[in-house]
Amino acid sequence: MHRHRKRTFAPPSLHLLAGSLAVALALGAASGAAAATALSRDELLDRAGRASDGENPLAEQWKLRHPPTPPRPQGSVTHLVTNCDDSGAGSLRDAIGDAASGDTIDLRGLTCSTITLTTGALATGVDDLLLVGPGMNSLSISGNNSSPVLVHLGTGRLGIEGLTVIDGAKYTSGSANAFGGCVYSQGGVRMVDAGAKYCLAQADGTGAARGGGVYARLGAEMLDSVISGNEVRAASAFSAGGGLHTYGGVVAKYSIFRNNAAYSSGGSSGMGGAASIAGNVAIGFVTVHGNSAEQIGGLVLFGVGAGTNLEIANSTITDNTATDSAVGSGVFIGRDAIISNSTITGNVEANSSHTSYGAGLFVAYDVDVDLRSTIVSGNHRLDDTTSVPSDIGTPTGSLSVVGGSHNLIGAAANFGPMPGDTLFDVDPRLGPLANNGGRTPTMLPLPHSIAINAGSGSGDYDQRGLGYPRRVGAGVDIGAIESDVLFADGFD
After folding, report:
1. 3-state DSSP: the chain helix, strand, coil percent, rounded to 5?
2. Per the domain annotation, does 103 fall within a domain?
């Protein structure tokens, strides 16, 4: 898959961009707003397991109940896929065509590693359908770079477990929108041990592009899953969600958004290289890295409607790039949010407006954010050839407030006083993004990091999960993971 080169355009004003973003993400959401609540995050989060003191509502004491399979109607059927052909008896296409709502498609007995689609996408109109494979790294379903892989026209839930969808492509012309490069769902999508990789949604006319990897209209759930190497492109309209786009909220745990992109031309822009999400957000134990867009290379989290909850915990957001942005690159927060025990660093935004807001974390007008034992440092804005620290910001005139405690923050723009125990403008001394154990890549605090033992948190584990305690040594470290036990005790 080829990346688009940088396009040159005059960046819109912040007020106009905020309005455009709201409109862009709200398109099509109104009619589905009520149905969006069907994907309850209680299915993945045990609220009774939350910290009783309110210190860290999304720490590892989330008790993940893993039956990712939705309730099945009485009499539901399992259809066995017995060969890797594109069509015909025993094929995946044949099984999907025979399936009713609530059925399961079982691909675990296949001996091939790839099913290549040669006659178009696999389409279904049933509400609930589950595909189960032998493992994300064992079986791929390829769109052959000519069609999407899965098209779900029902309004229930499409389950994808134990397989990867790859090389999907959705091309449109005229006024048609390009939604869902690999997966398109009118309902919700649940991914468990699943991948969406190297997919493209491209609108060559006046239409918009959304969801290069996955377009899930009514919500998405991810567990142990990877969305990687996907892209959205639009010739003249906004594009959003290089990896994932949804209007119905997201619950994600132990998952990765990596190397996704969103680009547009013709005076518009691409935003949310990793994902663009409207609705409630609960993200934990997740790494977002290497994504890019013109505006906001990482995550666009834009709540729609009163009472929207945006929560990020035990996560790392790094090395995301915005090529022409004044509204951040790592994370855009559009509603009041809580970010706890997380690391936001190494994100870069480039712009020619000589404006430094938040390359790491951008907080929209009059939106408040609670930071709890979180690092927001080491992010930069590129002004021509000059690199300027730019970590957390909000537009001029905004009444946004940063609350919380035990944070390490670099350069802040346009906020009032920060919490009194904030560590300002100090190097957190973090190692590179690497496999430090656990299911997602992380950034380990180096010896003598000021973040060691300076944080707080009541969860049992850090971002790496089971076997990696949240507290090692004299105290909790600021950020997503704990340092080595010897260094935490002050010995090297």
Report:
1. 5, 35, 60
2. no
User: CA-CA distance, 21 to 15, in Å (whole number)?
Assistant: 10
d(CA 20, CA 208): 13
The span from the CA of 359 to the CA of 325, in Å, is 9
Q: Which residues contact 10 (CB under 8 A, 6 or more apart)?
A: none
Q: Phi and psi for 25 in degrees, rounded to 5?
A: -80, -20
Residues 134/137/141/146 CA torsion (nearest 10 deg): 180
CA distance 291 to 320: 5
Q: Is residue 215 situated within a structural domain?
A: yes
| Lookup: tokens for 182 | 């690999």
Residues 360, 376: contact at Cβ < 8 Å?
yes
Task: Specify the number of domains making up the chain.
Answer: 1
Q: Using one digit for the tens of pLDDT, what is the confidence trace for 153-174?
A: 999 999 999 999 999 999 999 9
Tell me which amino acid residue 324 is. Answer: D
Q: What's the whole-model pTM score?
A: 0.86
Residue carrying structure tokens 């893993």: 66
b/e per residue 374-384 (b: at least 16 CB within 10 A): bbbbbbbbbbe
* Average per-residue pLDDT for the chain: 84
Give the integer Cα–Cα distance in Å for 482 and 475: 10
CA trace torsion 173, 176, 180, 184 (10° rounding)? -130
Residue 482 lies in a domain: no
Bridge partners, residue 433, by sequence: 443
- Phi then psi for residue 19, to 5 deg, are -65, -45
- Domain assignment present for residue 95? The answer is no
Task: Find tokens 């890549």 and name the residue.
Answer: 441
DSSP per residue, 294-339: SB-SSEEEE--STT--EEEES-EEES-EESS-SS-SSEEE-S-EEE
Residue 134: CB atoms within 10 Å = 17
Strands 183-185 and 321-322: unpaired
pLDDT category at 21 given cuts 50, 70, 90 is very low
Here the tokens at position 350 are 């480039």
**Rounded Cα gap, residues 420 and 368, in angstroms:** 17
H helix and E strand count, the chain: 4, 50
Segment 325-372, tens digit of pLDDT? 777 899 999 999 999 999 999 999 987 666 667 899 999 989 999 999
Is the Cβ–Cβ distance between 428 and 377 less than 8 Å?
yes
3-state secondary structure 365-401: CCCCEEEECCEECCCEEEECCEEEECCEECCCCCCCC
Question: Is a pLDDT exceeding 90 seen at residue 304?
Answer: no
How far apart (Å, rounded) are the C-alpha atoms in residues 286 and 340? 12
CB 333 within 8 A of CB 306: no
